[in-house]
Design a protein that fits this description.
The complex is a heterodimer of chains A (about 280) and B (about 550). Chain A is about 30% helix and about 20% strand. Chain A has about 280 residues and is α/β, with parallel strands linked by helices. In chain A, helix 2 packs antiparallel against helix 5 (about 195-215) and helix 3 crosses helix 4 (about 130-140). Classes of the chains: A alpha/beta (about 280), B alpha+beta (about 550).
Chain lengths: ~280, ~550
C-alpha cells in the first residue's frame, strides 16, 4: 500500500511566534514556517494505513527550499519513508490551481499511489481547494471530511466515515475503489485497537527515529523541468486567481472599561478592595 | 466473534522483574510472547525497598536471564548489613552480614524506574524476535472467558487478546488474581505497608566509608514507631539513599498511625540522620502494599491458562530482617515460562499451570515463602497470652539480665544472624518492638547527630509527585462512606492524614435535617495506587487506565 500525503508550510500563527507589521500585514521573514496544522491529520491517516497494511508513506510539498524543515517535521511525526519537494522560481506564487497542476504532475511522475491524502484547509490560505483540485487533475475518486478510514487491500476498496457538509451532527459512510484521494477532517482519530498494530507502530518509531535526523538523504527535489512543466501553466503565470486587495480585519473594540491601578499606591488599592468587597460574598 | 480476537501463544501482564523473567524464558523457548505494561514506562508504577537478591539455592536469578543487569541497571552491591536496635536515643548495633550473605550470591540496591525500564527494553527486543513484543500504557482489566474457561485478557486500550498461557505479573493489586478468584484483599493482618523516601546523597562513599562498588544496608527496630509493629531501613544507592519503613498493616490501623509521620520519626532520629546530608533533600516519597507470603502466598497460584507470579501471588517474603520479594518473583516468572515451554513440548499446553506449581514446590521456592517452622510455631507464638508473658519477662530484670548474658557470649548477635531463627519469627510485638527496645536499653550507647532533617510536609510530598490524572474517571469508588467501614483509610493511606484536606481520604461532617453525621470522602487525584484503602476501607478498587495516574521517577 503506497500513500502520498500532501503538505504545506505555513506561517506559525501561534502566539509569540507570528509577527505582524504596523498595518497588520504578516511579516513572513520574521515568522517561522511550520507544517500546516491540519496536515497532521492527513499524515496520521496515512500512518494508520501503513501500520495496518504495510507499504510506504511519501510526503510531498511545493515551496521554497526552506520547506525541507517542514518535511522533516512530517517524517518525525509519522515515520514517512520518502520526501518530495517541488521547488524552483517558476513554481513560486502559484494559486491553488497552479499548485494542483504541479502536485498532480509530481504524483504522476512518482507513479500513482493507492491513496493520496490531503489535510483540510491550510492555516494561511484557508481555501481548502488544493487537495480536491489535485485529485481532479489526477482523475481519481475523492472523499472529503473523512473522520474514520478502513482499507480493504484485497478488494482494493476504501471505506470512509465522513461528515456530511462538514457538519459533526451528520455523518455517512461511503466507499470508493483505489486509487482514491482522501481529504482528512480535523475530527479524524487514528485507531490502533490491536496489540499487533501497536507493536507495528512501535517498530516504526524505533526504526525511523534516526531517519528523521538525516531527512535530507530521503528528500528528492524536483524543479519544473524535472516535471516537464511549461512555465506558462505554473507559478504566478499559470494562476488564474486575481487578488484585488486585502482588507485587514480591524481589532474589535474592548467592551469593558479598564482602570489602571498602581499596586504601590495604597490609597488606590484600598479603593479597589472596597469596590471588590461587594462581589466577594462567596457567590 | 471471539475467533477474530488477536491470539498470542503467551501473554505476560506486567513488566516488573517477575514479568521480565517470564518473558525472557518464554522468548528463549521461541514462544510468541506479548508483554503488556500499564505504566507509561516500565517502573513508573513500581516501588520497592529495595534490595534485589540472587540466591545460591534458587533455580533462577535475574542475572541468569539478563546478564548485563548489574552493570547497567542496579545501584550498588550491598556488602555490609546491620540491624540497629533503638530505645530512645540509645542504640545497639548488630552485624547481620552473615545472615545477609547466607544463600546470597549477590544482592544489589535497586531503584525500580531505572531497573524496570532497562529490563523492559531487553524484554521488547527478545519478545519481538518471536513475533510478540512489549507495549507500554496498556491496562489489562480482566480475564477473557469462554464457556467459563479463562482464555485470554481484556484491556482498556485495545481489544481482547486470546492466549494459550497467561502470566499475571501485575503486582500486589493484581486485577487478574482477583478476577480469577485466587486472591482477595480482606485482612489487614496479611499485609505490610512500606513507605519510603529517596534522599539525595552525593557523598555516599565518604559518609558510609565505602568504595564505589560497595554498599550498606541498615535495618532499624525498637521504639521508633510509637509501638507500631514494623522496622526501618536505609540502603545506599549510587548517589541517593532509600530510607523507609515497613509496618504490619493491622498494627498501623489499630494505632491509627500516620505512615508519613512514622517515616519522619525515622528520618529525624540520629540513628538515621547521621547518614543524611545537610540540608535534607528528598527526591521522591513513595509507598507500597506488601503481601505477607507466610499468610497469603497462594499454595496453588493457577487456574486454567492463568498463572500468578510475584506479588500478584503473594510471593513476598518478609520474615524479621529477611525481606525478599523481587528475587522470588524472578524465580516464579522463569519457572512459569519453563513450565509452559515443557507443557507445549509434550502437546499438553493446558498442563502448564500445574507444572508451574510443581516447580514452585520442587525448587524450594514455596518452602521459603511459607516456612513450615513458622506455621508450626504460629499457634503458640502469636497467642496474645504468649506475647504478653514473653514481653513482660523480657522487660523484667531477669529478662534484661538474660539479654546481657546472651550478648556477652556473642550468642544474641549470632541468634539475630541465624537464618533458622529468622524463619521462625512470629508476627508479634516481641521481635519487632519489645526485644530490640530491651536490647538497646540494656546494651545500647547514646547516639547523637547534628544534622537537622526537616522532612517536607505531606502536601509538599504530594506536590512533588508526577501524575497524569484521568479527570472525571476516578479509579476507586468508596462503597461505604461510614467512618466505621472506611475511616481507617484516613490515617492508613500514605497520602492522606487526619486534619489534612489535600489527600485522598478525609473525614467530613455533614449536616442535614438538623442532625450532623461524620462521613469519609475520597478524592483519587493524589492516589499513589498502593492499594492500602482496598484492604482497610470498603471500596471498589481498580487501577487507572494505561499510562494514567501516578508516575514514579525513582520507585
Amino acid at each position: 500500500m503506497h500513500s502520498i500525503v500532501l503538505t504545506k508550510g505555513v506561517p506559525d500563527f501561534r502566539e509569540g511566534q507570528v509577527s505582524f507589521d504596523e498595518d497588520g500585514h504578516l511579516e513572513r521573514g520574521k515568522t517561522p514556517t511550520v507544517m500546516n496544522p491540519n496536515d497532521e491529520h492527513a499524515l496520521q491517516a496515512a500512518l494508520q494505513t501503513k501500520v495496518r497494511h504495510g507499504g510506504r508513506v511519501s510526503v510531498m510539498s511545493m515551496g521554497p527550499p526552506g520547506y525541507g524543515d517542514v518535511l522533516q517535521e512530517a517524517m518525525e511525526s509519522v515515520y514517512a519513508d520518502d520526501l518530495y519537494l517541488l521547488s524552483d522560481r517558476e513554481l513560486a506564487a502559484a494559486d491553488t490551481w497552479a499548485t494542483a497542476i504541479a502536485l498532480s504532475t509530481g504524483i504522476e511522475k512518482l507513479g500513482l499511489p493507492d491513496l493520496v491524502f490531503a489535510g483540510f484547509k491550510t492555516a494561511d490560505g484557508e481555501t481548502g481547494h488544493t487537495g480536491p483540485q489535485t485529485c481532479w487533475a489526477l482523475d481519481i475518486p475523492m472523499i472529503t471530511h473523512v473522520t474514520e478510514l478502513s482499507v480493504d487491500s484485497d478488494e482494493r476498496r476504501v471505506r470512509a466515515r465522513r461528515l456530511v457538509e462538514g457538519d459533526v451532527a451528520e455523518v455517512e459512510t461511503v466507499e470508493a475503489p483505489l486509487p482514491a484521494c482522501i481529504v482528512v477532517d480535523p475530527e479524524f482519530e487514528s485507531d490502533y485497537r490491536t496489540a499487533g498494530e501497536q507493536l507495528a507502530l512501535k517498530d516504526l518509531r524505533e526504526t525511523t527515529a534516526e531517519r528523521a535526523v538525516e531527512y535530507d538523504q530521503h528528500l528528492t527535489t524536483w524543479d519544473h523541468s524535472d516535471l516537464n512543466l511549461d512555465p506558462d501553466y505554473i507559478g504566478l503565470d499559470g494562476s488564474p486567481t486575481i487578488v484585488s486587495s486585502v482588507d485587514p480585519i480591524p481589532k474589535p473594540p474592548a467592551e469593558r472599561e479598564a482602570t489602571m491601578v498602581d499596586p504601590g499606591d495604597e490609597e488606590a488599592m484600598g479603593e479597589l478592595f472596597d469596590e471588590m468587597a461587594a462581589f466577594s460574598g462567596g457567590a | 466473534m471471539s475467533d477474530q480476537y488477536e491470539q498470542y501463544e503467551a501473554v505476560v501482564v506486567g513488566a516488573g522483574p517477575g514479568g521480565a523473567a517470564a518473558a525472557a524464558k518464554l522468548a528463549d523457548e521461541g514462544i510468541e510472547t506479548l508483554v503488556l505494561e500499564r505504566g507509561v514506562k516500565a517502573g513508573a508504577k513500581n516501588v520497592s525497598g529495595g534490595l534485589l537478591y540472587a540466591e545460591d539455592s534458587a533455580p533462577y536469578a535475574i542475572d541468569n536471564l539478563y546478564p548485563q543487569i548489574r552493570t547497567e541497571a542496579t545501584e550498588r552491591p550491598i556488602t555490609e548489613y546491620t540491624i540497629q536496635n533503638v530505645a530512645g536515643s540509645t542504640v545497639k548495633e548488630y552485624d547481620l552480614t552473615r545472615l545477609h550473605e547466607h544463600d546470597t550470591r549477590w544482592s544489589d540496591a535497586v531503584l525500580r524506574r531505572k531497573m524496570d525500564s532497562w529490563l523492559a527494553e531487553r524484554v521488547h527486543e527478545r519478545t519481538r524476535e518471536t513475533g510478540g513484543g512489549l507495549l507500554n500504557g496498556i491496562k489489562v482489566n480482566g480475564l477473557l472467558r469462554e464457556d467459563g474457561e479463562i482464555v485470554g485478557v481484556t484491556c482498556d486500550e485495545i481489544d481482547p487478546i486470546r492466549a494459550e498461557f497467561i502470566v499475571a505479573a501485575d503486582g500486589v493489586n493484581s486485577e487478574l488474581a482477583r478476577d480469577a478468584g485466587l486472591m482477595n484483599w480482606d485482612e489487614p493482618e496479611q499485609w505490610f505497608q512500606g513507605v519510603k523516601a529517596t534522599v539525595e546523597a552525593p557523598n555516599v562513599n565518604d559518609r558510609f566509608d565505602i568504595g564505589p562498588q560497595e554498599g550498606v544496608a541498615h535495618l532499624f527496630s525498637g521504639d521508633l514507631f510509637d509501638g507500631v509493629r514494623g522496622g526501618g531501613f536505609c540502603y545506599t544507592n549510587v548517589d541517593t539513599l532509600s530510607i523507609g519503613a515497613v509496618f504490619h498493616l493491622d498494627s498501623l490501623v489499630e494505632s491509627a498511625a500516620e505512615p508519613h509521620e512514622l517515616l519522619n520519626a525515622l528520618l529525624e532520629h540520629p540513628v538515621c540522620s547521621q547518614w543524611i546530608d545537610d540540608p535534607y533533600r528528598e527526591v521522591e516519597y513513595a509507598a507500597k502494599l506488601v503481601p505477607d507470603s507466610k499468610k497469603v502466598a497462594h499454595p496453588d497460584p493457577q487456574s486454567d491458562r492463568l498463572v500468578l507470579v510475584g506479588d500478584a501471588a503473594g510471593q513476598m517474603q518478609a520474615q524479621g530482617p529477611i525481606i525478599k520479594g523481587m528475587n522470588h518473583a524472578v524465580t516464579a516468572g522463569a519457572l512459569a515460562g519453563e513450565a509452559f515451554a515443557a507443557a507445549k513440548r509434550r502437546g499438553e499446553p493446558s498442563s502448564a499451570g500445574e507444572r508451574y506449581v510443581e516447580r514452585l514446590y520442587e525448587s524450594g521456592t514455596m518452602a521459603k515463602l511459607r516456612p513450615k517452622r513458622y506455621e508450626r510455631l504460629r499457634p503458640i507464638a502469636e497467642r496474645e497470652r504468649t506475647t504478653e508473658v514473653v514481653d513482660r519477662l523480657l522487660e523484667s530484670p531477669i529478662g534484661r539480665f538474660g539479654v546481657r548474658a546472651l550478648d556477652a557470649t556473642g550468642l544474641l548477635e549470632r541468634l539475630y544472624s541465624s537464618p533458622f531463627m529468622s524463619m521462625s519469627i512470629p508476627d508479634t510485638q516481641t521481635p519487632y518492638v519489645t526485644l530490640p527496645t530491651v536490647i538497646a536499653e540494656t546494651l545500647g550507647e547514646t547516639v547523637s547527630d547534628d544534622t537537622v532533617v526537616d522532612p517536607p510536609s505531606l502536601e509538599q510530598r504530594i506536590g512533588e509527585l508526577t501524575y497524569d490524572t484521568d479527570i472525571g474517571n476516578p479509579h476507586i469508588e468508596l462503597l461505604d462512606n461510614s467512618v466505621e467501614a472506611s475511616g481507617a483509610a484516613v490515617t492508613a493511606c500514605p497520602v492522606s492524614a487526619s486534619e489534612f484536606g489535600g489527600g485522598c481520604y478525609r473525614e467530613e461532617t455533614i449536616a442535614s435535617n438538623g442532625t450532623t453525621k461524620n462521613v469519609v470522602s475520597l478524592d483519587t487525584q493524589p492516589c499513589i495506587e498502593c492499594g492500602t484503602c482496598a484492604v482497610v476501607a470498603d471500596t471498589a478498587w481498580e487501577h487507572p487506565s494505561g499510562g494514567r495516574g501516578i508516575e514514579f521517577r525513582q520507585g
